[in-house]
């Protein structure tokens, strides 16, 4: 783990368009999210955040996610939306893009395999 000099974290407010959805809009998992309590600013970058500060903030956010009882639901929400900013379900936006790319490749491979099986069965 990268050791950074102790610096106070710069915390940004949640962008208005990225506030967690109300329970009746998106499901009950939001009510159990640890980040709803008091640490939501960890999950979104302030403008012009230095790289070292961003990495430190993201690691702190991931530690919060690691103890969250709805981490998996949150992650799936962010992958299905897809959420372009912030840490959701223990993944940064860049990490979510990698997961989505892997899922797309897997789906293509499965479709190709299914098509090959149909051809083999018919022929």
From TrEMBL:
Binding site for [4Fe-4S] cluster: 35, 65, 68, 74
Gene Ontology annotations of biological process type: cell redox homeostasis; negative regulation of DNA-templated transcription
Subcellular location: Cytoplasm
Keyword Iron belongs to the record: yes
Keyword Cytoplasm: yes
Xref: InterPro entries: 4FE4S_WBL (IPR034768), Whib (IPR003482)
MF (Gene Ontology): 4 iron, 4 sulfur cluster binding; dinitrosyl-iron complex binding; DNA binding; metal ion binding; protein-disulfide reductase [NAD(P)H] activity
Family to which this protein belongs: Belongs to the WhiB family.
Name the UniProt record assigns to this protein: Transcriptional regulator WhiB
Organism, scientific name: Streptomyces purpureus
């Amino acid at each position: 783990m990268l050791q950074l000099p102790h610096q106070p974290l710069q915390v940004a407010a949640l962008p208005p368009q990225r506030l967690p959805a109300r329970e009746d809009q998106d499901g009950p998992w939001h009510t159990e999210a640890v980040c709803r309590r008091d640490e939501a600013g960890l999950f979104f970058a302030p403008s012009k955040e230095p790289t070292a500060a961003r990495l430190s903030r993201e690691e702190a956010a991931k530690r919060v996610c690691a103890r969250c009882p709805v981490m998996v639901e949150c992650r799936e929400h962010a992958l299905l939306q897809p959420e372009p900013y912030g840490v959701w379900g223990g993944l940064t936006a860049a990490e979510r893009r990698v997961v989505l790319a892997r899922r797309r490749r897997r789906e293509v491979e499965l479709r190709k395999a299914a098509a090959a099986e149909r051809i083999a069965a018919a022929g």
